[in-house]
Specification:
The structure holds two protein chains of two kinds. By secondary structure, chain A is mainly α. Chain A has seven helices and no strands. Chain A has three domains: 1-67; 80-121; 124-210. In chain A, helix 1 crosses helix 2 (25-61) and helix 6 (131-149) crosses helix 7 (158-209). Chain A is extended and about 65 Å long. By secondary structure, chain B is of the alpha/beta class. Chain B has two domains: 3-26 and 259-290; 36-249, Rossmann fold, CATH 3.40.50. Chain B contains twelve helices and six strands. In chain B, strands 3-2-1-4-5-6 form a six-stranded parallel β-sheet, with helices on both faces. Chain B is elongated. The chains are: A mainly alpha, B alpha/beta. Chains A and B meet through helix 2, helix 5 and helix 7 of A and helix 2, helix 4, helix 6, helix 8 and helix 9 of B.
């Protein structure tokens, strides 16, 4: 016989799937449970896995070696000043530090990790060297025509319009591939739930009853 | 046949077909063949041919239960491959909503299949850390500062295998099982700035964008969705008979079994698309004929 946890999981799974028939109170209850549980889980995991080992314990166990963590913890606390109207402006200071840090990280990350290697990988040899040359031509033509499609400072007429239309074809092919993958992804999620319902809930239940 | 009625078919009828196409292959296994593709072979061969016994692989659980049916089989296959080859595994989680739970559950499940391995010596779970990008950057300087305790609360210095691991320089490869953007960060931050080879196992939804990173050699392998996971399972089963026996265990959910369902559901969807178009164009012609 399935345990209580399995019964609960099966109940909530069926509640969520009931939306396929039509919106109903069971679906809404399950949806609210999911949102509440997710938030509770997130708070618990951040407290136990980040705040405790990386902030609280180092400060308690060896303050002199970790005193600089006071600033990090202070910045985190400052964010909550937004709930006190008179000193709400203090939270913006902390936010400014976070935004500044992540802008800096992202700027380098985008440039170093995306723009430069991706542009570099598009600079392909078009001199004949077998079948690879054909793919290189397709790649270069695809990149250039899609860039032209997104170039809005010239009217898309004549040669620009033709290249732009070619860009649309490349985009449509990529959207088709992405859609195919998306269908597979969504079906995978359905498979996961159905495998659970069949193998972990229904099968043991039927075996116990029979 | 009244085609007007077919054009108005209730979408819930289609759901019933999809449900039947999903449930029946789960009960009656088909065992359809799985062919492998270069991105997955690259990932497998990287671990199989370029890593040696005792090397360290970082496995990052960057997904939650919402994409577990896709990412779990990838994680299991990579962990089983590493353990079968004697590679040491450091597990972390950077995805907030369930990454840690997945890491604990999958690592415990796979580790139980290898009773000869010892926690803290052959594998370790360092737990979850918030602020993924910041954690990834800091790990290049010191794993210990990011993960002072493992998931059980054991201090970093008391974990035998972590004594030799200070930063990315002591790790041969990172394999991230990812939903959302965290997988991309391993490629465009960690690989780009610190040179650590990266294998990504993304959900199918986000798989297409990873091909750009793979083409640009910012990744050394890609397992796209359930199909990628099933290919990896095929490769490890072909190479390791012990794992082939394991994957044949009745009741064990595998990506290979999941792909049976995928194939049937895709056939149902293709049939509905063809049928819908057929009815649509037949209906479109009728008024012209009447005129």
């Amino acid at each position: 016989m399935p345990g209580l946890g399995t019964w609960l999981a099966a109940f909530f799974t069926l509640c969520m799937l009931s939306f396929l028939y039509k919106d109903n109170p069971f679906f809404r209850v399950a949806e609210s449970f999911f949102a509440g549980l997710s938030l509770g889980y997130y708070i618990g995991i951040v407290a136990n896995q980040t705040l405790k080992p990386n902030l609280v314990l180092p400060l308690i166990q060896d303050f002199s070696a970790n005193w600089n963590l006071v600033f990090a913890g202070g910045l985190g606390l400052m964010l909550y000043f937004r709930y006190i109207k008179k000193v709400a402006w203090v939270s913006r200071w902390a936010l400014a530090v976070y935004v500044g840090y992540y802008v800096g990280v992202n700027m380098m990350q985008k440039l170093h990790g995306e723009v430069i290697p991706q542009v570099g990988d598009t600079m392909l040899s078009l001199s004949y060297s077998g079948i690879d040359t054909l793919w290189n031509v397709v790649m270069v033509a695809g990149v250039l025509s899609v860039l032209v499609y997104f170039y809005f400072s010239a009217e898309h007429k004549g040669a620009v319009g033709g290249i732009s239309r070619l860009g649309i074809w490349f985009l449509m092919v990529s959207f088709g591939a992405a859609f195919g993958y998306t269908v597979m992804g969504r079906i995978s999620l359905l498979i996961g739930r159905m495998v659970f319902l069949v193998n972990e809930w229904a099968r043991p239940l039927i075996e116990a009853v029979i | 046949m009244n085609l007007d009625r077919l054009m108005q078919i209730d979408r819930r009828i289609i759901y019933l077909f999809v449900a039947a196409g999903t449930i029946l292959p789960i009960i009656f296994l088909l065992g359809l063949p799985v062919s492998t593709t270069p991105p997955v072979r690259m990932a497998f061969e990287r671990i199989e041919n370029q890593l040696e016994k005792g090397d360290v692989v970082l496995v990052s659980f960057d997904y939650g239960p919402s994409s577990a049916p896709e990412n779990d089989p990838m994680a299991d296959a990579i962990l089983r491959h590493c353990f079968a080859k004697g590679i040491k595994v450091v597990v972390i989680a950077l995805y907030p909503l369930g990454g840690l739970s997945e890491a604990i559950e999958e690592l415990n499940k796979v580790a139980a299949e290898f009773p000869e391995l010892e926690y803290g010596v052959d594998y370790v779970n360092l737990g979850y850390k918030d602020g993924a990008q910041a954690a990834m950057r800091k790990m290049n300087e010191s794993f210990k500062e990011v993960f002072p305790l493992d998931v059980n609360g054991t201090p970093f210095d008391e974990i035998p295998m972590m004594r030799d691991i200070e930063n990315y320089g002591d790790v041969k490869l990172v394999a991230t099982l990812a939903t959302g953007i965290i997988g991309e960060w391993w490629a465009n931050l960690v690989n780009a700035q610190f040179g650590l080879p990266v294998i990504v196992g993304p959900t199918a939804v986000s798989a297409p964008k990873y091909y750009a990173y793979l083409e640009a050699r910012q990744m050394v392998g890609l397992l796209g969705g359930l199909k990628g996971a099933s290919e990896y399972e095929r490769l490890v089963m072909d190479k390791y008979p012990r794992l082939a026996e394991l994957y044949a265990t009745p009741g064990l959910y595998t990506a290979t079994k999941g792909m049976d369902v995928q194939s049937i559901v895709h056939l149902i969807m293709i049939a509905f698309i063809l049928f819908g178009n057929l009815v649509y164009f037949t209906q479109k012609r009728k008024p012209r004929a009447a005129k």
